[in-house]
Design goal:
The structure holds 2 protein chains of 2 kinds. Chain A is an alpha+beta fold. Chain A has helices at residues 48-56, 65-74, 99-109, 116-134, 137-150, 163-167, 171-181, 197-208, 256-267, 273-279, 311-328, 332-349, 353-367, 373-382, 385-394, 410-422, and strands spanning 5-10, 16-21, 28-34, 78-83, 88-94, 187-193, 229-233, 240-247, 286-294, 297-306, 401-406. Helices cover 46% and strands 18% of the residues of chain A. In chain A, the strands form 2 sheets. Chain A has a 6-stranded mixed beta sheet with strand order 1-2-6-3-5-4, sandwiched between helices. Chain A has a 5-stranded mixed beta sheet with strand order 7-11-8-10-9. By secondary structure, chain B is an alpha+beta fold. Chain B starts with a strand and ends in an 11-residue tail after the last strand. Classes of the chains: A alpha+beta, B alpha+beta.
Chain lengths: 423, 414
């Protein structure tokens, strides 16, 4: 990894371009990171960021929707896009000889025509996607817990929107949102892998110099959780799917590494406290704790799915684990185990340019910082129990908003919860 | 490309196949054991599913916690699962930790404690996995489709069946393990930052004296219904379609893969264009190629809201039928670009390569080189694909739907 180089330039219109060039890689990955998502939407346009992500694939002045699909396939690209609460990312990975065509295509797509007939057709696909997620209890629970936890704060907005909000969305509303949000101050172009950097900059410059500048800052006021309990009863579902959300360090915080170590020790998929206390004895099919970081907010998210009969016991065990960690921190041997596990994970996911692209882009978007793989490993190794204690003091794991989706009624769920409190 | 392939077959029938990759710090292995769902005794489907959990609960000199903790401390990412024919174990770690990881796995595979007092926990988890499947219609449809499409025992649900999971005893699990735990037919595929002589010697030390065990033959039995509907209260209807094609080891494999790629490779392929882009019927629609030793299959999926399910099924079947009538040169060129870039990019991932070398060995008894695959892909043409489809046309369909209402099956040209 010795020959890896970081590069950055900024075009006169404000567009930033960064790259991690690795001449030994076999492929190159490019991403257009747009700093916009569900939290940047007003209520009347809920779902527009994600719908717009789909519309970007529907073509520009130069390309029809079918042209876009065809050209990606002609260059054998792996590509996709995703929308979250605060980012919309378009990415592709290709063999190095196809990089110029990939850049030309992605850059052109980022100036979409938003044609009316494409808009109407794609609306049907989005409504299908909403239908697909409605059949997934974990997704239903995720959307509900974000809404409950953040309340009126825009981080509680649904990424997909609802059938109603998407159904009534008009093309002109999307165009206005695009004009406001897809400005150069909100866009980062990033490349990783076998990239001819001067040529890459030339290509992006040619394609993007006319993009409008300007700024549309985000409403990034801090958010805290509500701490409520919300039960969604779906009799057709067999398991009870439960999400617990607690506040955690925001993306800007230097404590995010400690937060990551803490959640891995307490709630990784294997070898963690939740694993040994809930999954290993067969009380829950899955039980995990994850850390999610946002602008000005963070969440510790606990998920478990289990037979409804085991609900009370699982809640009691989680409560006991979080109380014990809050009082006594994680043990030194747990800290070492997590560091060993996480260091290897960083190396494994970084071997492909595709795996480097997302950390490269997000480190810059959130913190304007470039970090090598070794930087990440070094910081990880330096996390101490004192760091974790500081996180736990500021963000106790048990200050949770609770959402359950499953066969239990509100009364049944609350009585099982109360049984825990009494015992 | 200067990657190197190695293999060694030990006297007991255990095969090690490896690929040394330049420029990676990791090493990964995929261990294929002939102990998949097909080998579960009749009516006892799920013993393998329970065993793959139980063997990690203490092995060799380590108790259950030590197994997990020691693997974590080696930085090992792992996954294991029961498949149709194999139970497979996958692990990836830094190249420097590979042999230490294999040492722990030799205990897990050959010397598990199989503790009686853990059986209830294993059972509870297996039953909850079955329960979770009911909440995931997009996964359940594949279990239902496979169980009807493949001849018994090759389509048996890898998660097992409720009655057997509920009644399996410790004694029964121990006996099944004794029968399944054998060197003959096991394949260890390794890829990444490896030192071949050291790896071969280590594997010899760890698995070379493993008894070969019984040679258990799987006989094909009857298959299930060709069309079926499963009632399910949901927003969307799930549609699963399968039909036979040539196996991976067949000389026509690349033509079969080419045909599937024209049908459903990238987003300019037939299914995505006709079902999603032109009609907006679905969010997800695709087809992919799968192979057992003697038979290949194309498996298609579409999920769509109930009112539009009939049209989705009709259009999907029409597109499957249309590929054999016309394939254009530009479609083949795109399929070639996609297939070539995916095999080259696979060369950046030790995990992907370890799975490939193990699977190649199982199907072919050798590993296909990059050059061989590239030249076979270069040789594809509209004629080669259409000629292939003339000899092996899509037919003998299995069509399963899951949703509130059954659909009409309107097969084209059958």
């Amino acid at each position: 990894m010795t020959s890896v180089n970081f590069k950055r330039i900024q075009l006169p219109n404000g567009l930033e371009i960064i790259g991690e060039v690795n001449p030994d890689a076999r492929s190159a990955a490019v991403g257009f990171f747009v700093r916009t998502g569900a939290r940047d939407e007003q209520p009347e346009i809920h779902g527009v960021s994600h719908f717009l992500e789909h519309m970007v694939f529907k073509g520009s002045e130069r390309r029809s929707a079918l042209d876009v699909n065809r050209e990606f396939d002609e260059i054998g690209a792996r590509y996709n896009a995703f929308t979250s609460e605060e980012n919309t990312v378009f990415w592709g990975a290709v063999l190095p000889e196809y990089l110029p065509r990939l850049v030309d295509l992605l850059a052109d797509m980022l100036r979409p025509s938003l044609r009316g007939d494409d808009f109407d057709m794609e609306k049907k696909v989005i409504l299908e996607e909403i239908g697909m997620y409605q059949d997934q209890p974990t997704w239903t629970a995720y959307e509900a817990v974000m809404r409950q936890h953040f309340g009126p704060h825009p981080l509680g907005n649904s990424v997909l929107g609802t059938s109603d909000s998407v159904g009534s969305l008009a093309r002109d509303q999307m165009k206005a949102y695009f004009d406001r949000r897809y400005v150069t101050s909100n866009i980062l172009v990033a490349a990783a892998g076998k990239v001819d950097w001067p040529r890459f900059c030339e290509l992006v410059t040619d394609a993007c110099s006319t993009w409008p500048g300007g700024a549309d800052p985000r409403d990034a006021r801090p958010a805290n959780g509500a701490g409520s309990v919300h039960v969604i009863t779906q009799k057709k579902i067999q398991q009870e799917h439960v999400l617990l959300l607690a506040p955690a360090p925001p993306a800007e915080s230097p404590d995010r590494f400690a937060a990551d170590v803490l959640t891995t020790a307490v709630g990784d998929g294997g070898g963690s406290r939740l694993f040994w206390e809930l999954v290993d004895p067969g009380l829950a099919e899955t039980a995990e704790l994850d850390y999610h970081e946002f602008n000005g907010a963070g969440t510790f998210m606990t998920y478990f799915g289990c037979d409804p009969d085991n609900l009370g016991e699982n809640l009691a065990r989680i409560r006991a684990i979080y109380a014990a960690v809050g009082a006594d921190n994680i043990r030194p041997d747990e800290l070492d185990q997590v560091k060993n596990k996480a260091a290897a994970r960083i190396v494994l996911r970084s071997e492909r340019p595709m795996g480097r692209l997302m950390p490269l882009g997000f480190n810059w978007i959130y913190r304007r910082e470039y970090r090598t793989i070794d930087d990440d490993i070094t910081t990880l190794q330096s996390v101490s129990r004192d760091d974790i204690a500081r996180v736990l003091a500021a963000y106790p794991l048990d200050r949770v908003t609770t959402v359950a989706v499953g066969p239990l009624t509100d009364a049944e769920f609350r009585s099982k919860m109360a049984g825990v409190a009494d015992s | 490309m200067s990657d190197d392939f190695y293999n060694h077959k030990f006297a007991n029938g255990f095969t090690l196949v490896a690929e040394k990759m330049r420029g990676v710090r990791s090493a990964a292995f995929t261990l294929l054991l002939p102990a998949g769902a097909a080998f579960d005794p009749p009516d006892r489907g799920g013993l393998s599913a329970m065993l793959v959990d139980l063997i990690f609960r203490g092995a060799g000199s380590r108790n259950s916690r030590q197994v997990t903790t020691d693997l974590d401390n080696l930085g090992t990412q792992r996954g294991e699962g029961v498949e149709a024919v194999h139970t497979s174990h996958f692990a990836a770690t830094l190249g420097t930790s590979l042999i230490a990881t294999l040492e722990i796995y030799a205990d897990i595979i050959r010397r598990p404690h199989l503790p009686a007092d853990e059986v209830e926990a294993v059972r509870a988890l297996a039953l909850q996995e079955l329960q979770a499947l009911e909440d995931e219609p997009r996964q359940k449809i594949f279990v239902e489709l496979r169980s009807r499409h493949y001849a018994y025992p090759f389509g048996r649900p890898t998660v097992g069946v409720r009655a057997a999971l509920e009644s399996a005893t410790h004694d029964e699990l121990t006996r099944h393990h004794a029968r399944m735990c054998r060197a003959a037919g096991a394949i260890l595929g390794v890829a990444g930052d490896i030192d071949w002589p050291k790896l071969r010697d280590a594997v010899d030390r760890l698995f070379g004296d493993w008894p070969p065990g019984d040679d258990i033959r799987l006989e094909s039995g009857p298959r299930g219904l060709h069309t079926d509907h499963i009632e399910h209260e949901s927003t969307q209807t799930q549609i699963g379609i399968a039909y036979p094609t040539v196996p991976y080891r067949d000389p026509e494999y690349f033509s079969a893969q080419g045909a599937v790629t024209v049908l459903s490779g990238g987003s300019s392929s037939r299914l995505f264009t006709e079902v999603r882009e032109k009609r907006g019927l679905c969010y997800a629609v695709y087809a992919s190629y799968h192979s057992l030793l003697d038979t290949g299959s194309v498996v298609c999926y579409a999920g769509t809201t109930n009112e539009r399910a009939q049209e989705t099924l009709d259009v999907t079947l029409a597109e499957i039928a249309r590929v054999q009538r016309d394939v254009a040169a530009d479609e083949v060129a795109r399929a070639q670009a996609g297939l070539k870039s995916s095999i080259i990019m696979q060369g950046e991932s030790s995990s992907a390569r370890s799975a490939s070398v193990a699977a190649d060995w199982f199907h072919l008894g050798r590993v296909r080189s990059l050059a061989e695959m590239q030249s076979a892909i270069d040789a594809l043409s509209p004629e080669s694909i259409m000629n292939h489809l003339e000899r092996h046309p899509p037919r003998d369909f299995t069509i399963v739907t899951l949703g509130p209402k059954s659909l009409e099956i309107n097969l084209v040209g059958e």
